[in-house]
Design goal:
single chain; 519 residues; alpha/beta; 7-stranded parallel beta sheet; 6-stranded parallel beta sheet; binds adenosine-5'-diphosphate; binds zinc ion; DNA-binding; ATP binding; RQC_domain; EC 5.6.2.4; metal ion binding
Amino acid sequence: MKATPEALLQQVFGHAAFRGEQAAIVHHVAEGNDALVLMPTGGGKSLCYQLPALLRDGVAIVVSPLIALMQDQVDALRQLDVRAACLNSTLDADAARTVEQQLLAGELDLLYVAPERLLTPRFLSLLDRAPVALFAIDEAHCVSQWGHDFRPEYRELTILHERWPGVPRIALTATADPPTQREIAERLQLQDAQRFVNSFDRPNIRYTVVQKENARRQLLDFLQAHRGQAGIVYCLSRRKVEETAEFLAGHGIDALPYHAGMAADARASNQRRFLRDDGVVIVATIAFGMGIDKPDVRFVAHMDLPKSIEGYYQETGRAGRDGEPSEAWMCYGLGDLVLLRQMIEQSDSGPERKRLEHRKLDALVGYCESMRCRRQVLLANFGEDYPQSCGNCDNCLQPPEAWDATEAARKALSCVYRTGQRFGAAHLIDVLRGGESERIHQFGHDRLGVHGVGADLDARTWRGVFRQLVAHGLLDVDTEGYGGLRLAEASRAVLKGEQTVMLRRVAGKRERERSASGR
Ligand code: ADP
Ligand code: ZN
């Protein structure tokens, strides 16, 4: 007789109890049923197919798009004495043949395979002759054309269902807003599969968003409260990764860079140090993190705005997998918004795709600007209702103040108009504050009526005003040229005095320090 799921969980994996929906999923799949599993990163998806693989006769075929991750999983399973192997392009012909023989001889519990490999006629005919226990489709959102990881081969995975209708299938993903969930079910013909939707909440992660002033300084202040702890700092570009890592190292922080442009061995060695040593801070582009299973990552810091809430949530989800208090910290300014809008506009994507990317970016900006509990906003994005305030985000801990910025907004908008709708915020703020720079004189902006009308507010407050005017759609960014600001249609009502503008007050230095020093 086979062991029970609970017994195997302890004996093989060494875990005392199932988490969340794991138990229900394992039973359901082990009994031969289909499942669609939506679980946040770090939620424990792997067990949902690894245990049924051991409970059912035959081998579980795991489709995974990430070759690096495959090898890690196989290594980890072998350490637990589970008979696992993988087939992908990194194996030479001999090694691949050995794996194939093991497969046919029934000597494997789990076989990880890349989708393009799985779909070859050769492999499919091998499967005809092998005892298959189940199919697991990991990272199932790759089937969605609108997701950021679209893999055309995923669309063809319906062949599994058509060719082996009796074999149960389990599809898993961490990146699923409701439309993507529907698309996964449809594309993989899993409409009849039971859905297991775990809460995406990560209660031990504290969310904070600060206005970008001097980003590196702000990062350093934030890191002071996390001395000796492991963490990830995300930057948008490779160059910024290098510079930031160097800057931190120069300030006594054990920081290492990681990006796709580095030599493979340097990259691998930095990743190894991050995984093995204590208290390493890895500064990386989003190339870093897929399949990184380090439980005690204490913080994830974003120096630049990510592209979507899903991306942000997946990246911050790498913090605190061990359940201990952790932080997700983001430094965000108007420049980020301008840059990302330009990147979308200037990409080769078609108009529909661009619209979608703008929508996703706007949702993330909405998160950054929100005065509500951050957790509520994040979870709402995944279709989850979180009724209470979480008490563990900056907005809950230091409720932001709104101020009547109608007059300031009007000054800012007229400054945009009077200067010809082609300058960026830095120059506009200079004009408003009565600056005497060469540029101001060169354009004759010192002779405008708006010159100096905003001297009552400091530059930091003005930055907050301009950023929020863009975020709220009162100003547009010129995405073809240099990112100058233009009046949006909606600004008219404000200029005519028909609409008031309430904005979030930018936290003062003292408050920022307090929030940086954490709990
Ligand atoms: P995901 O694939 O959903 O991101 P993993 O399957 O990699 O998550 O699991 C994340 C971490 O949680 C791993 O370190 C794993 O060992 C651990 N884990 C999973 N299930 C349990 C459990 N029931 N009890 C304790 N730890 C668990
Ligand atoms: Zn909150």
